[in-house]
């Protein structure tokens, strides 16, 4: 079958090109969740899947499912796929690569005259880029979470679309879907019906590129402990006339906290812990700050991610202790609330091992690595469905028009995907 | 004479009240440089000075001079005064206190039937709050510097008024003054004609308030070494997916620099050096920063002030060395240019001693201290005219409507001023 995957390279490239042509927006593409750009991509994939003879359906949240029927439909099925929305003027590969890979793998099985024991379902999810397209209170990945029954109570109404100002519920209704079914449902995807989920995705960081390795096999999706709207409150005063002992300097206080995090991060890296720490926002007040004022306020955001829950909990404790110490030492008030905690989502170890074996069997170089970004796969893992991910090397990061996935790398990753899907669903 | 000063308290309080009434703006006062608010204050002081029998004149820059003629007009005269403009919705005392004090001191001498040997000239300067009212390229304190012949070449045209968008030259012309005279002049105030300058001003910091001392005697005005428009350039990347070794994090880099300054400041404080360090601005980009992006840019401002030129030079060297080190360690580019240097202006030691003796003789508690803010006095010192300053305790800082100078403190400081003016000009 591997030869049949390789032979589908031109097909895969042409699908990417057609998706791009349908959603081109300046230097990149825009496939807005629950709007026309995303819908055109869903229509195109549905048509291609139908052309391959797959049974195409759309669920109550608008997610697309294309079922390659196996010989034993009573057995739990396998899912592969990803999302089809993009960020605003994003790249063509973030999301779409996983859908095209699934389609290519299934097409290759058909080309090779193979029919699996178990159903293999290609899925294309809606609204994975929810942090781009929705504001308000929501937990992200709205399409896959709707299908998995993981939406929060009220989330259909508290997630507000940035382009229309309307809630998710209205966006779904207007696109022809059925939010009421999601709300009252049993969940659309019942874990008992599925043996596992494998998602291919471009890497969003530079690790594979820097290490010259085409494929990544993901051990887990990092959890994130976050301060979204942190604030240091000190007191404004005269930069020349107020001596050190009377200052309540918000910038020195926050810089102290940042350097404390820097030090703790270094200690934990040295101890081999998986960890990234980002202070994405550190801002004095544009309306008030000045060369000649001791700054009285800093707004900040902190994003701490790790595959290890102990590491995340340890960092939270460190952050809180250090914040209290700085408050006492520097005469400021330091707000870390609301403090968001999303847990790490470990990938299923047996699936990780199967992917490693698959890549080794095919002679494809790979790196075992964490996923720093969130993906639909984590929602499957969180719902109790064994999940795994394959990354494709990508030079220029994601969420920008410069994504630079090479089709040759994509094909190597797709060969691993097809290999393991067949190993899991084909003969068992 | 001291009893005559004390007896003028009601007069002084009424002058403050009338100045306030003429310029009230919400909770504070606005006396815009070279516009109506400042002009009304000048008119009021001119009228009061004329009423005392002083010879009132207005110079080519619009500064007011009210001369109390001495017996020996051929001798170098003494100047006392300050400015009459305020910041936007500022307090009533910053600047005005020095003019009211001079007027009160001279009135008391007249009340006491005293006539000095030397002329005593009360001056009210224009546009001391130039950093509030003028943008563009300028060196501040435009009124006193115009009188002292210290304007830069082109400054009449490069200082742009914020309320009108017009250059200083046009503001002067429209107010009826003569910028051409300033440009071609000999300087309006010739150092050979003046024996010294003594300025009373509210303290702009909290030191006197915190130490419960009514009067400050200033040893020098701190110089300031400044980075007005600093920038750290790193690279934006994904907060979850990019590991430490591939980051070029502008916030960690800048926090590192801030904490280095914090440490160096502590070392120099411990060594007894006069120093304040302020990072008044530390701002990621409002349009691009995000919880989930490694920050690629920080804009900042640094203000380092000291009475010691060696301290300022040492801090500049430290800052530059540390910036180069951080660039190498953290993969960022750190811009410190343009780097402004204004030198410290030491007050005349003999005048400082005279003020200390005066306060001691009157039994008035005082603190010997630095001035962190800039004042017209520094332009006199820089022009080679012996200068000194008396501070008045002020609870709530300056440049805001909450300035809280007590009239009792003002009177104690004015007694010191009158005492020393008489000692210097009265009998010698």
UniProtKB/TrEMBL annotation, chains A, B:
Q: Which Pfam families match?
A: Peptidase_M20
Superkingdom field: Bacteria
Quick one: which residues bind Zn(2+) 2?
Answer: 94, 129, 399
Q: Which cofactor does it need?
A: Zn(2+); Mn(2+)
Recorded hits in InterPro entries, A to Z, give:
Amidase_Cbmase, Bact_exopeptidase_dim_dom, Peptidase_M20
Q: Which SUPFAM superfamilies match?
A: Bacterial exopeptidase dimerisation domain, Zn-dependent exopeptidases
Q: Where does Zn(2+) 1 bind?
A: 83, 94, 201
Task: Tell me one GO molecular function of this protein.
Answer: metal ion binding
> Any note on cofactor binding?
Binds 2 Zn(2+) ions per subunit.
Instruction: Cite the entry's keywords alphabetically.
Output: Hydrolase, Manganese, Metal-binding, Zinc
| Subunit (UniProt) | Homodimer.
Q: Which family does it belong to?
A: Belongs to the peptidase M20 family.
Protein name from the UniProt record: Zn-dependent hydrolase
């Amino acid at each position: 079958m591997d030869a049949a995957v390789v032979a589908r390279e031109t097909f895969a490239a042409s699908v990417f090109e057609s998706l791009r042509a349908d959603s081109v927006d300046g230097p990149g593409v825009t496939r807005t969740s629950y709007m026309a750009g995303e819908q055109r991509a869903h229509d195109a994939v549905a048509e291609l899947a139908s052309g391959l003879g797959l049974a195409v359906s759309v669920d109550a949240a608008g997610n697309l499912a294309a079922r390659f029927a196996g010989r034993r439909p009573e057995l739990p099925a396998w899912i592969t796929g990803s999302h089809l929305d993009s960020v605003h003027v994003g790249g063509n590969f973030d999301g779409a690569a996983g859908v095209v890979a699934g389609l290519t793998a299934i097409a290759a099985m058909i080309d090779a005259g193979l029919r699996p024991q178990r159903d293999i379902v290609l899925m294309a999810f809606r609204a994975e880029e929810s942090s781009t397209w929705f504001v308000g209170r929501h937990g992200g990945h709205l399409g896959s979470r709707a299908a998995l029954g993981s939406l929060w109570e009220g989330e259909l109404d508290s997630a507000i679309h940035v382009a229309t100002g309307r809630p998710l519920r209205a966006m779904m209704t207007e696109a022809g879907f059925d939010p009421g079914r999601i709300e009252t449902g049993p969940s659309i995807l019942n874990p008992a019906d599925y043996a596992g989920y494998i998602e291919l995705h471009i890497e969003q960081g530079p690790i594979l590129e820097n290490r010259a390795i085409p494929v990544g096999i993901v051990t887990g999706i990092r959890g994130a402990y976050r301060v979204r709207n942190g604030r240091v409150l000190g007191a404004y005063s005269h930069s020349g006339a107020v001596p050190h002992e009377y200052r309540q300097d918000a910038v020195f206080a926050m810089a102290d906290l940042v350097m404390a995090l820097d030090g703790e991060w270094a200690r934990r890296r040295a101890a081999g812990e998986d960890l990234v720490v980002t202070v994405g926002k550190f801002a004095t007040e544009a309306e008030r700050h000045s060369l000649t004022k001791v700054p009285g306020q800093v707004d900040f955001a902190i994003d701490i991610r790790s595959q290890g829950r102990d590491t995340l909990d340890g960092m939270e404790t460190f952050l809180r202790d250090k914040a209290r110490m700085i408050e006492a030492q520097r005469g400021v008030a330091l707000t870390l609330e609301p403090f968001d905690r999303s847990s790490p989502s470990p990938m299923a170890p047996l699936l990780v091992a199967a992917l490693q074996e698959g890549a080794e069997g095919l002679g494809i170089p790979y790196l075992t690595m964490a996923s720093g970004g969130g993906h639909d796969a984590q929602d499957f893992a969180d719902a109790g469905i064994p999940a795994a991910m394959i990354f494709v090397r990508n030079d220029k990061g994601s969420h920008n028009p410069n994504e630079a996935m090479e089709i040759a790398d994509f094909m190597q990753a797709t060969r691993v995907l097809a290999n393991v899907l067949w190993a899991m669903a084909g003969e068992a």
